[in-house]
Prior knowledge:
By secondary structure, the chain is of the alpha+beta class. The chain has helices at about 5-20, 25-40, 75-85, 135-150, 155-160, and strands at about 45-50, 55-65, 70, 85-90, 105-115, 120-125. Strand 2 and strand 3 (about 70) form a beta hairpin.
Amino acid sequence: MIREEYYSDFLKQLKSLLKDERDWLANLANTASLIYNLVPKLNWVGFYLMDSEEEMVLGPFQGQPACVRIKVGNGVCGTAVAKRKTQLVENVHDFDGHIACDPASKSELVIPLEIEGTIIGVLDIDSPAEARFNREDQDYLEKAVKILIEETDFTPLLERERR
């Protein structure tokens, strides 16, 4: 199956899964599971959520146990928050400051979750294959994040972040 086909199928399933549920925790958990089970060659998918202005804490995920806290500006996830921009890393070992939660990971894609100008966390996707992700993957997974944000009530996380 080519990328366009499985991503098209994935986005349809994501919309269907989220359409009748607004709870942020349930939707993050189901989104991580759907990505992990439908997108090939992944070894970890999950969310890190802002716990303070300086640090994220582990949220719902699929895969091996992970680092619990990541400081903004550190690693691929922290860099995505600091730069407010998706990070596509072909080889994590070439990324200065990479945090190796799972030594099997070789490439990574991290997409910030930004709502009304506030970053509430990131979607972190790891692969054991080097250069697993390309611009097409990034575009489709950014669409998935947009769907997640549109279909989910993140008010509790926004209120926590704005305190």
